[in-house]
Amino acid sequence: MKTLVLAVLNIVLLLVMPAVALAQQSLISDPEIYEKKHFQEQCKTAEFADGFVTRQDINNDGLIDAVVNEGLLTCDGQKGPQCNDDGCTYNFYLQVAEGGYFMIATAQIYGYDFVQRFGNMVLAMKMHPRFCDRTEGDPCIVTARVRGTKFVTISKK
Predict the structure, then answer these.
(1) How far apart are CA 128 and CA 96, in angstroms?
(2) Where is the signal peptide (predicted)?
(3) What is the pTM of this model?
């Protein structure tokens, strides 16, 4: 009986611990300050173009979130050092009511539009055609809604 109770407790701990670890993610005060400091430490000279950080409500909760476009960074004279054929790195941060932000996603994309669909604002991300099972042609448009703390894909074209 004692062995059974210990086994059940171990299973419960294994199921609960990942949720606890996720819940303890550190909040940052401002994604713009956080990202700029990171690149100022990585680069001898870091320059940030207008639009490096876009502030808008991406999850329809009324709080202003932040999207960082690393393609608008010039690091040691190289514009968008993380950009490649798949696009540039974009980091998506959500603001929480308690104050602060946390990153919910990083995506390698060409860009995005914020559009209204069925009464909700959604992200229409322009991505490499392979994300729509194509090898070439126009960029793939992946439409996603941020629900809670997850991107939920609505469509791919």
Answers:
(1) 31
(2) 1-23
(3) 0.80
